[in-house]
Description:
Rossmann fold; 13 helices
Amino acid sequence: MSLSGLPRPGAVQKILIWHQGALGDLLLAGPALLALSRHYPQARITALGHPERWALLAPTLSLEAVWDSGAAAWAPLFAPDSPLPAVLKERLARFQLALVFSPQPHPTLPARLAQAGVATVAWLPSWPPEGQEPVGAFLAARLARLGVRASKKPFRLIIGDDWEDGGPRLSGPGPFLAVAPGSGHDSKNWPLAHYYEVTRALAWEHGLRVVWLTGPAEEGLLPYLQGLTAAQDHLLWANLPLTAVAAALARCRLYLGGDSGLTHLAAAVGVPKVLALFGPTDPRVWAPQGEGVRVLRAPCPQAPCALAREITCPDRVCLQNLAPDLVLATASALLRHG
């Protein structure tokens, strides 16, 4: 069903939230998810999506469970002509409300959830289909139509007590500068040589210890980064659990990165100063929110040029032309006034 009303709070004991989006998309939905949890204070929420990403929201939303949407058990929900297994019906019929986040309405999923026994199923678009409205404001407006009020305060994650157990801990002299040079698309990445130039200067001028953060998408950068970090006495953390990354970020004074999930995570855990570098994508829509967030845009007359989430520009020069001197000056000003 579409957005046409939600059950009253007293009628809902269990909520299922289906969100399979990337890390940044999930965190941009954070204010909406928090608003739903507060609108239904007595209800227990089960999340269905990417378990590692959803684990970041477990303490904040007091999640009852996190289920992997990639598991084969959910396949019958996408086969409209096949009978639903009894075990799947039993698993889903306990929910009085299910909310499905996706870019476009799914042709079968809401109806199949209803067939499984979920009393109310609502679809919410993951992001605005067009225009320049921030994702958080867009989702808040959609929820307002349902009588759910979202806070205008920046979304903040509660750090789990055991999150640091999943990886190395920041220790030794600080303060720390976290740097995440990668993203889900090469065209969104500032050149690595620029990152090196700026981080070296920031470490020298402001006494910062640099922590480089990489994931599977940056596997090709590791040989270069391993030599760089060893020579400069920087830290290199590769492929750590997201909860461990979040705990480390919460101890940093400054974060530098592009339009990526880790940039959203840095803002969500409350890094005092977050400097985000944007090129083909529109920061008016996709930038993290918060008083400590500063965005620098590529000096390209065509930027932003992405169509929704699709980057169609054949060239990869816009962020190359974002001068290291400007980034360094901006980061230094953030540190001086922080």
